[in-house]
Write a structure and sequence with these properties.
The structure is a single chain. This protein is an all-alpha fold. The chain is built from four helices and no strands. 89% of the residues lie in helices and 0% in strands. α3 packs across α4. The termini are far apart. The model has no long low-confidence stretch (mean pLDDT 88).
Length: 119
Amino acid sequence: MSTTAKQAFVLAIGGLLITAFILRLARRRLLSTRYAIGWLGIGALVAVAAALMPFVGRLGRLANMTPTAVLLTISSVLLLAISVQLSISVSQLQERLRTTAEAHALLASRLDEMEQRDR
């Protein structure tokens, strides 16, 4: 078995394992549907990458890189994109939390004022 075929096999198994793991997390409700769909897409992308291994070799030759280096570069870019997306989500959640805390503080202050007037 050639090295390319072995790498393709490992990628295919990895994609299937990622997909199975994400489905398990989603069924246990440890992962929201929004993120589960994204990670399932990544699992499918990994599995499709297995079928595209011959093209990765050609792309590597064009860029003067080994197929492994090409896959690592693509993986690094994908991880960077996921990190940026998660940073955006966390930033939005922090903003919502701040807004909610401010609204709560204003309502609590107003309630205290109303209780003092009623006395």
